[in-house]
Design brief:
mainly alpha; 9 helices; transmembrane; transmembrane helix; membrane
Length: 254
């Protein structure tokens, strides 16, 4: 890769690994706060007397966690760049094609499963919310009080780390800007993060869970697209590796 600055590349790998780690841990870092009082207030507006309410917690949401489906592609791509630091080009070409094929298939399957789960949950949310009063109360009890503040802090941290990742990649090798796939991936993950922040602030808090789940559905679809891109892109590398191996074997036999 020419004048590749290795420390910056390794730091970029660390930054994007932190991004994925924060997103995967979002379910544990957000939600869980007591929402019993808010539920009683909303029940009163619907004309329903709840009496004593058990523990009602804020939901963690799926949006931030589903961002990891996209950012794991950024982690994988950066990892492949780092792999070039320790493997010869010939060996890397063979390993990269097969490994990317396996990774893309796994990502495809995981994204598809999570897409179905998020879509089903979104359907249930909307159905309950549009069935007052008891359906709406059931929705409020489970999803009605999304922790917008906690999510905003996490998304701000994630966005900062992504900008650091992009900056470190450019510092490591300015010619990465010529890599259209990498630029498209960086823009995709940044836009998805900003879009989720926008969705969280677009509606009243009782509706945020619905838009958060909608974001999760969209992110799963985007991840499916990137998985297909990786899958298709790995095929030429595998074919080239097979041809090279066959040619080398033929020369050895002769």
């Amino acid at each position: 890769m020419g004048d590749l600055r290795k420390p910056f590349l390794l730091l970029a790998l660390l930054a994007v690994a932190l991004v994925v780690g924060v997103e995967l841990g979002a379910a544990a870092l957000t939600g869980g706060g007591d929402a019993s009082g808010a539920l009683r207030d909303n029940a009163g507006r619907l004309g329903v007397e709840l009496g004593d309410v058990g523990a009602v917690s804020e939901p963690a949401g799926r949006g931030i966690g589903h961002l990891a489906l996209i950012d794991v592609v950024a982690l994988w791509t950066t990892g492949l760049f780092c792999l070039s630091l320790v493997l010869p080009d010939r060996v890397q070409g063979r390993v990269q094609g097969v490994a990317t094929l396996v990774f893309s298939i796994v990502l495809l399957l995981v994204s598809l499963v999570l897409l179905i789960v998020a879509f089903v949950e979104l359907t249930v949310m909307v159905s309950l919310f549009l069935a007052p009063p008891f359906g709406t109360l059931a929705y409020l009890a489970v999803w009605g009080f999304f922790p917008v503040g906690d999510a905003a802090v996490l998304l701000g941290l994630v966005l900062l780390l992504k900008l650091v990742w992009a900056g470190l990649l450019l510092a490591a090798q300015p010619r990465f800007l010529r890599n259209k796939g990498l630029v498209a991936l960086a823009l995709t993950t940044l836009l998805c993060t900003v879009a989720l922040q926008f969705l969280h602030g677009l509606v009243p808090v009782i509706l945020v869970s619905i838009l958060d789940d909608l974001g999760a559905v969209v992110f799963a679809v985007v991840a499916l697209i990137w998985a297909l891109v990786l899958l298709i892109g790995s095929i030429p590398a595998i074919v080239k590796a097979i041809r090279t191996t066959a040619t080398t074997s033929g020369r050895t036999v002769r």
